[in-house]
Design brief:
The chain is built from four helices and ten strands, in the order H-E-E-E-E-E-E-E-E-E-E-H-H-H. The chain is an alpha+beta fold and 218 residues long. Helix 3 packs across helix 4. Keywords: Apoplast, Disulfide bond, Manganese, Metal-binding, Secreted, Signal.
C-alpha cells in the first residue's frame, strides 16, 4: 500500500510542477500600460504597444496636491486610478489622496471592486466602516503614521478631528476600484422625489433640498 502511494506521488508531483510552470498560470508579460483611447473592457484596458512605452508611463505626479476643499464636505481628493495613471493597468493596485480641512468629511461611500488600505500622512481623523453582514460599525481614531484596512464593498467614512488639515493616502487592491457615494446615490439622480421620499422615509421638502445640493432632478 505504501509503495503504491509512493509511486502515485512520483507521477503527481511532476504534473503539478508542469501546472505551476504553465504559461496560462504565470505572468506572461512584464506590464500592460493601458491604451486609454481604445476604451475599457471587462478584462481591463488593452495594452499599449510595448515599443511605444516610455518611463513616463510608470510615473504620476497627480497625488502631489489635491483640489481645494470643496463644499459641502470640505475635502479635496485626487486619485491615481487607471483612467488617470495608465501604468497601473492590470497590476491590481491604485491610490488616492484626501485632504480634509478642519471639520472636513469623506462621506459614507464604498468601493465595489477593491479593498482600501488607508495611511494617515498628517493630522488626526476618525475612520470607520459598517459591516454588510452584521450591520456593525468598526471605527478608530487615527493619527499620523496609522493604518486602517477597509474591506471591499463595505460602506466607510473619515472625518477630521483636529484643528488642522488631515491628510490620508489610500491604496487599493484594484487599478479601478470604483466608488459610490451614498449622498450622490440617493440625491444625485433623476429618481422622482416622491419615490426617494418613500425609500428613505425623508419628507419631500428635504429630498428636494438634497437633490438641489447634490445635482439631482425630479
Amino acid at each position: 500500500m505504501a509503495n503504491a502511494m509512493f509511486f502515485q506521488l512520483l507521477t503527481v508531483v511532476p504534473f503539478l510542477s508542469l501546472l505551476l510552470l504553465s504559461p496560462s498560470l504565470a505572468l506572461n508579460q512584464d506590464f500592460c500600460i493601458a491604451d486609454l483611447p481604445r476604451g475599457d473592457t471587462p478584462a481591463g484596458y488593452p495594452c499599449k504597444p510595448q515599443a511605444n512605452v516610455t518611463a513616463d508611463d510608470f510615473y504620476y505626479s497627480g497625488l502631489a496636491t489635491t483640489s481645494p476643499p470643496a463644499a459641502p464636505f470640505n475635502v479635496g481628493v485626487s486619485s491615481a486610478f487607471v483612467a488617470t495613471f495608465p501604468g497601473v493597468n492590470g497590476l491590481g493596485i491604485s491610490a488616492a489622496r484626501a485632504d480634509m480641512a478642519p471639520g472636513g468629511v469623506v462621506p459614507l461611500h464604498w468601493h465595489p471592486l477593491a479593498t482600501e488600505l488607508l495611511y494617515v500622512l498628517d493630522g488626526t481623523m476618525a475612520c470607520g466602516f459598517i459591516s454588510a453582514t452584521l450591520n456593525k460599525v468598526y471605527t478608530k481614531t487615527l493619527r499620523k503614521g496609522d493604518l486602517m484596512v477597509l474591506p471591499q464593498g463595505q460602506p466607510h467614512f473619515q472625518y477630521n478631528l483636529g484643528n488642522d488639515t488631515a491628510v490620508a493616502l489610500s491604496s487599493y487592491s484594484s487599478s479601478s476600484p470604483g466608488v459610490q457615494v451614498l449622498d450622490f446615490v440617493l440625491f444625485g439622480n433623476d429618481l422622482p422625489s416622491d419615490v426617494v421620499s418613500k425609500v428613505t422615509v425623508l419628507d419631500q421638502v428635504q429630498v428636494k433640498k438634497l437633490k438641489a445640493l447634490f445635482g439631482g432632478s425630479n
